[in-house]
Amino acid sequence: MSGTDVSTTDRARRRPARERLLAAAARRFYADGVAATGIDTITAEAGVAKMSLYNNFSSKADLVRAYLDARHEEWLGLYRARLEHARGPRDGVLAVFDAYADHAAFAYEHGFRGCGLLNAAAELPAGDAGRAVVRAHKEEVERLIAGHVEELLPERPDEARATAEHLAFLLEGAMARAGLEGDGDRLRHARAMAATLLDRL
Fold first, then answer.
1. How far apart are alpha carbons 73 and 137 in whole angstroms?
2. DSSP state, residue 87
3. Which of 2, 22, 150, 158 has the maximum number of C-beta atoms within 10 A of its C-beta?
4. What is the largest distance, in Å, between two alpha-carbon atoms of the chain?
5. Does this model's pTM top 0.85?
């Protein structure tokens, strides 16, 4: 190896501390759970001092919220990439399902465990700000679906809203089962069901 080559580990350690902490938190929170993951575990994996964490986040709860925000943005990026290839509102709805399948296909340390946002929310107490982040994500997903369905049914707003809710429930149910089963098969089945439903409108 030449002197100019830089290993993956070296490149990772040159990233800003906040970025490294968020990446470590994302891995550990998803693989092991929020409650089971301590600050020491995250700082050790990120390769930073504990003080560095508190220089970037006011508390573990603040780090959890940042993780949830980042996961939401990550999903939106997948959705937008899928939407670029959509040819009309029907494909727009299916882009939502595809983005969830893309998230499920990531190389997770202990395999796919379902929606990282819902997994985290299940560990957080009622009223926690993190739960509000997850709720906002799920509401946005349903709004995106609804926007596409409304384009398909411009003269039938009530049916469009009911169909969007139906599709959102189908997606969430598939995500829950896929997480339990450890793969994205249920998401692919749900996408096929969604396509059939849309074709019958």
1. 9
2. -
3. 22
4. 66
5. yes
